[in-house]
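YigZ family protein structure dump, as promised
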Amino acid sequence: MGEEAKRYRVPSRVHRVEQEIQKSRFLTTAAPAPTVEEARAFIARVREEFPDATHNCWAFAVGPPGSTAQVGMSDDGEPHGTAGRPMLTALLHGGVGEVAVVVTRYFGGTLLGKGGLVRAYTACVQQVLESLPTLERVRKVRVAVELEYASVDGVRRMLAAHEAELVAETYAVTVGYQLLLPEHQLEAFHKALLDQTQGEVLFEVLDAEP
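structure tokens r here:
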């Protein structure tokens, strides 16, 4: 997996833009979608907010930017392939992961034609992504470390440099830590841990985020 899949941009909050195209009013709302369930819940909320709209077309892509493993789309009554598909294509090329978008259209009396609809829905998604507030999503892994008491101070000092967060600790014959750290730091942290403890350490990766 490349570095770009381990660190990527996701929406930090719900964001909305509005534009008029050929007398039709388009409201485009984007939101964080870390899971399919959250994407569908957001879409339902927007549909409830604009029940009188001509169309509430939507698309979502859960996962890193460009990933098609968990996607969805709907034309919501627009001609087949003129809304959901171009919206999803724009999302997948937008450089943002875990995102859902609803384009709410109030028809203004002028027919756009199939090509015009594709251009309009593509432009709506591109416009909302341009101004979308984002934050960095970092894939993390949970690891277990077991070490001698003599190594505790040195190991604790090196945690911050590897962005490692101590989530649990036990003290018995040896010291046990559970740590959460960015996946891209894993190899360097393991090497530093071996150096710091002269190899007197047990290290196990427990799980990684999907």
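The longest helix spans residues 113-130.
lmk if u need the other ones
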